[in-house]
Write a structure and sequence with these properties.
It is built from 29 helices and 6 strands. By secondary structure, it is mostly helical. The structure holds iron/sulfur cluster (SF4).
């Protein structure tokens, strides 16, 4: 792949050939030039797709209708191929099938670059890609499956009806999925036995003279094994070429971001600043903090100290939920000086790093709160550290005790531990959310500790749903604001009201606050108002005297 800052696309014959089938083994890397915007957009979309696969794999049986339906709709929404019968010769809305296949191809290779870097990343990537491949292969029509095998040098052929007839009973007896009725209609692949060791070991196929006879729905097992092996080798090879890729300063930050990527809202935006007070933190930590932050909070309260990793993870989280710099300094200082650090030492050694976190020192980077992927994949905690993700970094027995202490039910704990065992850490956290908030199914996909906090506040009814409020505002009020500026309706650029207009037209009714106070407010109330605004008693009497003679504007001038 080559990268340029301008979009250039040329379709070669080999490229068209590459996308001639709905499914790929990703044997050939893309050879065309793509722009960096496309590079980023493709990779983020594929990551979204893979994360959906991860979530669906835990919530549904992998071949179930619901699983397929949800994956269909996600692939469709993200413009990845999802229909094996799609054909560019027929008119269709949106990107063509060629473009979808191209996106599928390129995005796969970009994520290879991002996800070949560590064992954890490779394992996660292979698992999701294999699941995606399984789903797509199963969706193919039988002739497409055969074509796919041949295109990829898996020279397995189906046996003819004549060949099948004498083997009929053997085939029925040796396979769970074949009955006397279906054997006639089903295709059977004849495969060298060494290519199907899994099926032979589990005695799922008929073996004769070095060949096994595989019913068409089981051929996916072989193809998947092959795909997994190829991908695993390819990732190891890609990892070797990483130094060259990392020397490209345009790509390195993108790839690093992708491998720690969290897809969704950016919680760095400081729209919450000042929304919580320091007194609320203790109760919020019990109700609305995810486990990682709850344990950090507990630790700072108990030990009055946190090491750098913990301060960064927790400090940025607190910043994200709305602590201002002043509040943060106060929070950290009050805790540290309760421990072994005096105020002077705190100011010299620690205050800098708190200000740094808020972008007020050093490079002045406004650091963003860590996403789950970042917490899970980078900087694992050592002894004495309290940062990290408890679902990833805590010993299961300890995690169990922690959950018991937090009053999670025994059955809930088993479900969480089961997810942890399957390395679905974010799903385990989501389960913890459901159990601690007493809801059946969380209707979000957890990616970020700050997202956990916001969802919790929503569930508990304490958090304002800014998005909802925005929708209401947009529907009901934004029009009139734009109208005022001449951008709606008759497009009149309205002028500010004069005193005469305010005094003479549209007098306020109960509950209104417009109008002129010297004209429309009861004299006794006006007096109180002027007192509250620190107008001297003699001034108030003068205003009253002028008003009694109906000198409204003069009264206002006196006030001025
Ligand atoms: Fe924190 Fe994310 Fe781990 Fe939950 S999954 S404990 S939010 S890092």
């Amino acid at each position: 792949m080559q990268f340029s800052s301008r979009r250039r696309k040329f379709i070669t014959n080999s490229q068209t050939e590459l996308y001639g089938h709905p499914l790929q083994f990703y044997g050939q890397p893309p050879l065309e030039n793509i722009c960096l915007t496309e590079f980023e957009a493709f990779s983020v979309d594929r990551l979204k797709l893979l994360k959906t696969i991860e979530n669906l794999g835990v919530s549904y049986v992998k071949r179930s209708d619901m699983y397929k339906k949800k994956l269909d709709s996600e692939s469709k929404a993200l413009n990845f191929p999802y229909r094996p019968d799609a054909d560019d010769r027929k008119p269709q809305a949106g990107p063509s099938e060629y473009e979808k296949r191209r996106k599928d191809h390129i995005s796969h290779f970009i994520l290879r670059l991002a996800y070949c870097q560590t064992e954890d990343l490779r394992r996660w990537f292979i698992q999701q890609e294999v699941d995606l491949f399984r789903y797509r292969f199963n969706e193919l029509y039988p002739p497409q499956k055969l074509e796919f095998l041949h295109r990829n040098n898996l020279q397995y052929d189906t046996i003819s009806v004549e060949e099948k007839k004498p083997l009929r009973d053997k085939l029925v007896n040796s396979s769970y999925t074949v009955s006397g009725i279906t054997v006639e209609e089903q295709d059977f692949y004849k495969v060298p036995f060494q290519d199907a060791l899994d099926l032979v070991r589990t005695r799922k196929v008929y073996l004769k003279a070095g060949y096994v006879y595989i019913p068409h729905q089981d051929i996916v097992t072989i193809v998947l094994n092959d795909f997994r092996t190829r991908l695993s080798k390819a990732l190891a090879l890609t990892a070797r070429s990483l130094p060259a890729v990392h020397s490209d300063e345009r790509l390195q930050p993108l790839l690093n971001h992708l491998s720690h990527a969290y897809v969704g809202q950016d919680y760095s935006i400081q729209k919450n600043v000042g929304k919580i007070s320091l007194d609320q933190i203790d109760s919020l930590s019990g109700k609305s903090f995810p486990l990682c932050m709850r344990q950090l909070h507990q630790s700072i309260r108990e030990n009055h100290h946190l090491r750098h990793g913990g301060r960064m993870q927790y400090g940025l989280f607190l910043k994200g939920i709305g602590l201002s710099l002043e509040q943060a300094l106060q929070f950290w200082r009050s805790e540290f000086i309760r421990g072994k650090v005096d105020a002077d030492k705190f100011d010299k050694a620690y205050a800098y790093s708190v200000r740094h976190m808020f972008g007020k020192e050093g490079k002045r980077t406004d650091y963003t709160p860590y996403s789950c992927m970042k917490v899970i994949l980078s900087n694992p905690p050592s002894q004495g550290d309290h940062h990290g993700c408890p679902f990833r970094h805590t010993d299961p027995e300890l995690l169990k005790q922690k959950l018991q202490a937090y009053k999670v039910s025994p059955s809930g704990i088993s479900q969480i531990l089961e997810l942890v065992k399957g390395m679905h850490f974010q799903l385990a956290c989501q389960k913890y959310f459901e159990l601690t908030h007493n809801i059946e199914e969380a209707n979000f996909s957890l990616n970020h500790p700050n997202q956990y906090f916001i969802e919790s506040q929503k569930a508990l009814g304490g958090g304002k749903d800014d998005d909802e409020n925005n929708v209401i505002f947009d529907k009901a009020y934004a029009y009139s604001v734009r109208h005022m500026f001449g951008k709606e309706g008759k497009r009149t650029d309205y002028t500010p009201y004069s005193c005469m207009k305010v005094i003479l037209s549209n007098p306020p009714s109960q509950g209104d606050h417009h109008g002129c106070p010297f004209r429309h407010t009861d004299p006794e109330l006006l007096k109180q108002k002027l007192q509250a605004y620190k107008v001297s008693p003699s001034g108030i009497s003068q205003v009253g005297a002028v008003l009694s003679r109906l000198g409204l504007r003069l009264a206002s001038a006196i006030c001025f």
